[in-house]
Design goal:
Strand content: under 5%
Helix content: over 70%
Radius of gyration: 18 Å
Order of helices and strands: HHHHHHHHHH
Number of helices: 10
Shape: globular
GO molecular function: zinc ion binding
Keywords: Metal-binding, Nucleus, Zinc, Zinc-finger
Structural class: mainly alpha
Main location: nucleus
Largest sheet: none
Number of strands: 0
Subcellular location: Nucleus
Length: about 210
Amino acid sequence: MVDAFKQHQLDESKNLDDGTSEGPEGDLEKMEAEEIEDSLDKVDKMNGDELLQEEADSEQCEDRHKAAFVGLRRRTSYFSHTLQLVMKEFDNQRSQKRVLGTVHKIVSKVNKSYKATETLISRAGKKLIAYCHTGWSSTYLMLSRLLLVCDELTSVLDELQWDNLPTSYWKQIENTVEVLQPFAIYTQLVGSEEVTTISLIIPMLAKLQMH
């Protein structure tokens, strides 16, 4: 299951390197693969102050989003924020709450343990990403990192004799990541200040409708 997820990521990268896509949709696909690891690495490098600042920025963005619909002069909703509102609906689904609740406990327990964190980093080269309720794509980042270090995390939990996730939960996590991935990637793409992405909006919407 997890190996299939990792292989899927490798296959996507290989297809992009072969240059098999052209036009706006091709450009979109090329940018997608680059943004996935960039998002995860960015979270890894952030310290406590930066995480707090990101939370503040997210709250300000949410306030601006709500203010956009106040009064007679309504503006078009910010596309990135709209994508995030869709993603947050997954957190409120009854079928997701039990799994996410268990994941939050495991991630929190591992991150609070110096021994568990250092052992995981020594084996996987990465640490777990904690959930932040105001952080964009937070659920996706947390779950996708969990899948990438699944084997190493399992060995750490076994050594410490801590509870692991049941197989059914891992399968649900894999499905959730697959659903949330395009929303997270497109949020990162259209939020970039270095690349003009307005021409990619229509291809994005078309791909989301077929997702």
